[in-house]
Design goal:
Blueprint (H helix, E strand, L loop, with lengths): L1 E2 L1 H17 L10 H16 L7 E4 L3 E3 L3 E8 L8 E4 L5 E2 L3 E3 L6 E8 L3 E13 L5 E3 L3 E10 L3 H4 L2 H11 L2 H8 L2 E7 L11 H7 L3 E6 L5 E7 L7 E2 L2 E2 H18 L3 E7 L3 E8 L5 H9 L10 H11 L4 E6 L9 H10 L4 E7 L2 H8 L5 H26 L3 E5 L4 H15 L3
Parallel strand pairs: 3-11, 14-17, 14-19, 19-20, 20-21
Antiparallel strand pairs: 1-10, 2-4, 4-8, 5-7, 5-9, 6-8, 9-10, 9-11, 12-13, 15-16, 17-18
Length: about 425
Amino acid sequence: MRPTPRLILLALVALALTGLLLPFTGGIVLAVPWAGLVVAVVVDMFSSVRPRLYARLLEADQIFASESREVTLEFSAPVPTGFTLGLEWPDGLTGPDQLVVEPGASKVRFAIRGRRRGVWTVGRIWPAWISRHRLLEYVPIVRLDQEIHVLPDMRPITQGQIDVAVHTSLHGQKEVFAEGEGSEFHQLRDYVPGESLRRVDWKRSARQRRLLSKETRAERNHNVIIALDSGYLMREEFGGLAKMDHAINAALSVGWAACVGGDKVGLYTYDSRPRSWLPPASGRQVFPKLRQTLAGLDYEERESNHTLALATLGGYLKRRSLLIVFTDFVDTTTSELMVEQLGHMSKRHLIIFIAMRDPETARLAARPVGDLDEAAEAVAATDLQRERKIVLERLHRLGVLVLDTVPSALTPKLVSTYLDLKAREVV
């Protein structure tokens, strides 16, 4: 409870009256203005509604990183007139700092957004309302102590987008290409006039006394290894979400696509040293382990050691694999060892290097220059883009497939690239 501006003004009036009466009188007369003020405060206090409030958040147990969701804050009693609400959010969540609630309402809806993965506690809220005669403001502290789990964004998986893309590739229009160029036998079927005679199985046709064609499909059971760098460069935020979270969202989507497509999926994480290794395994039962490991991945502050990490990963891999590398670099100098190690591994494995482009850097490099500060920013941004291009071109010449894209387009582009490589059997 604290005084309002009206009460402070009345106190100043009482002080002025005391000052005016002081030369002419004394004693109890000087206390009359203050006694009246005290009576007014007491009357206002006892005539005002002071509900004992408890609150809880509904529909907020789990939220995906980068997702905005409407939640409900429910109160134990209807709120009085002039009710406002101050909210305090942990680092992993964002939401409104203050809300105005309609008089008599017992709940209010608003949107919150997940910023960083983890388990975050919404600790306290500060409801506030004015007393009946507007002399006092009640500001109790209400503890929520409610946990909200911020998970990697799996909406492309839960909404079925990845399943549709994979089944379209395996059984839709792309199947014609996969059948003609695939190396894995699928089935026999009747010959269709006009079809290439190279697909006819002459021995079985002779036994059956009718022309039969062989159907082949793209080979399955490949190793798909997701290698994710969790070093400090991956903490940089694009669009309100850390680069590592963008990488995790894309990794989960391509991992699910590989599970549905019949390939073996493995996971490797590292920063200054190797962190976790999930050997390649097939079937959808591997996906919960993948999701759990990625959801618990910490935001590290260490610099990544690419030489140690990639050399260790190379020792784990006993057969040719599709290696998807999520990492970051600053310039040509700091990326030298990384490029060298990736070039060495590309001789045995097919590598997809994920390079997330910073939209803000591109904007600074392209905007018109109006003063010296803007000119300096444009030069720095252009230099970063030039050095980035040099590194990516070197990787391309070494046989590494580079995906250079903005974070928002990473997941669909990565999944489509994986399906295309699978159909062409280049692993």
